[in-house]
Structure formats: C-alpha cells, structure tokens
TrEMBL record:
Any Pfam family the entry gives: Acetyltransf_1
Species whose genome carries this gene: Planococcus kocurii
InterPro entries registered for this protein in UniProt: Acyl_CoA_acyltransferase, Bact_Acetyltransf, GNAT_dom
UniProt cross-references to PROSITE patterns, sorted A to Z: GNAT
Entry keyword set: Acyltransferase, Transferase
Domain N-acetyltransferase: 10-147, 151-281
Name by which UniProt lists this protein: Acetyltransferase
C-alpha cells in the first residue's frame, strides 16, 4: 500500500477539512477536541496538520498541532484509522509533526490524548514521557441574572500592573507572557471581580463554537476561601446564558486544590486529558 503524507498550515482547504471531519466522525467529541477541529478553518490560527492519504485518495490518518497562545508552545495529537494501525502510520505522522515543529522553531511541544487510550508504549517509542493530566469540567449556563451583592464584574481596562501582581501571587511568572497575549488577542475577554474598587479575581473568557471557556482563572491568595471563586464562576454561567451559549468549560490539573471549588460551583467532570512532554536526547 502506497501512502502520501503532507504537512498543511492552518487554515486547511475546505475539502481537506471535510475529509478530516469524516475520519473523526465516529470518535466521541471529547476525543476530537485534542485535534483542534475549531482551528482547522480559522484564518488567524497558528498550527498545522499532517495528513496521510492512500493511493485511492482515502484519508486514513491525521495529526494536528496548534500554538494555542502565540508563544511557540505547541500542543498536538494524532489519530489513525483502526484498519491501518499496524502500518507504523502513527510513527510517520509523529515524525511529520516533529519536522514541522522544528521548522517553526517551537520552544516546547506537548502531545495530548483524551480518555484512557492505550498510548504509553507508542509515546515512549517516540521519546515522549508523561508530564501531567488535566480534567475538563462542564456546566450549563444559568438563567438567573440577579446581581451579586457586594461585588462587581468589569472588563479589563488597562490596569496591567495590578492584574499581573494578582496572577503572579496566584501562580508564578510563567503566566506573564500568557496574559500579555490575552491582553492583545481580540477574541479573548479579560474580566475582573472587584470589591470596593479592590481587585479580587480575574478570568479570561474565550468562545469556541457554542461554548464559553474560562481560562487564566485566579483569586488572590489573600481572598481565597471567601466564596469569590464561586461567585465568579456563577457569573460566567449567567453570562453564557445571556449570550445564548450552551456550555461553560474549564480545565484544571488533577492535583489542583481548586478542583473542589469548581465542582461545588456546579461543574462536572467530562474527560481527562493526558499530556506528554518530548524529552531531548
């Protein structure tokens, strides 16, 4: 059997996007998300696909990688049609990803796989090793638009120093370049929770398809344990309802203490994603 492999930058052409969707059509939605289908056609997305066709023009394998926040940090995954998994196609796709990442001078690269897929042996064979796991949680939008007493939610308006101080206190300096990107990306909304003009918490909101993603969510350490996190998440669910969205999503590492806050706020676990880090030989 003869195969042809190609590397295509996003956005891919319409026919290729339809072929990719057809290949993944039997996969659960949560297994498709790690292949970044929302970015395949996006004109401003930074990423690429490695695709494998047979000589009969049947698409039988894809890998997709995306620079999620424009900082040369790529996340990628792959899928091979079950009938062709004994043809070393996964290795060929991974090699294509590696080549494309070198061309793009990627500073880091993580592979992501949803659920409990048996991929340990394969990942280790291409020199990737477990890094961390994340849980994706989902909640339905809330109809209740009653104002929350004592606090206000306002869009970010340029107080960068105060915002960065909150994020550094909650995380560390690694959040700085991410928030700098969020501040200039028109598709990312930074919101602040304030009380008596004091900044208490922040979150960056991103709409993907019909879902509202809550990212870069942080409550100042001095204010934690007072219910502000739950108030913010409730407000996010109300905002999603106002905008006619169907779901609110967020993710958190499995060992993060905030997992309890999210679940107490009405979020339910829907999937686990394992991340694998490339080890330099």
């Amino acid at each position: 059997m003869e195969l042809s492999l190609s590397i295509l930058s996003f956005p891919v052409d319409e026919q290729t996007a339809r072929d990719m969707e057809q290949l993944l059509s039997d996969l659960p939605t949560e297994h498709q998300t790690v292949l970044h289908p929302n970015l395949w056609r996006a004109a401003d997305s930074r990423g690429f696909a490695v695709i494998a066709y047979t000589d009969q023009e049947e698409l039988i394998g894809i890998a997709a990688a995306a620079d999620m926040v424009g900082l040369h940090h790529y996340e990628w995954s792959l899928f091979v049609h079950p009938d062709y998994r004994r043809h070393s196609l996964g290795t060929a796709l991974a090699d294509g990803v590696s080549h494309a990442l070198e061309q793009r001078q990627a500073e880091s690269k993580l592979a992501a796989f949803a659920g409990d897929m048996e991929i340990s042996a394969f990942m280790e064979s291409i020199n990737y090793h477990p890094d961390f796991n994340e849980i994706v949680l989902s909640a339905k939008p809330l109809r209740d638009d009653k104002e929350t007493e004592g606090v206000e939610f306002v869009p970010y308006a340029g107080a960068a120093k105060e915002l960065m101080e909150l994020l550094t206190a909650s995380f560390d300096d690694t959040m700085t370049p991410i928030m700098e990107h969020n501040m200039v990306d028109p598709e990312r909304e930074i919101w602040l929770l304030q009380k008596d003009q004091q900044l208490i918490a922040t979150a960056t909101l991103v709409i993907e398809e019909n879902a509202l993603w809550v990212t870069a969510f942080a409550v100042h350490p001095d204010q934690q344990g007072r219910g502000y996190g739950q108030q913010f998440l409730t407000w996010c669910r109300q905002l999603a309802f106002q905008r006619g969205l169907t779901e609110v999503l967020l993710d958190v590492e499995t060992d993060n203490d905030a997992l309890y806050v999210y679940e107490k706020s009405g979020f339910q676990r829907i999937q686990t994603i394992s991340y694998w880090k490339h080890e330099t030989v």
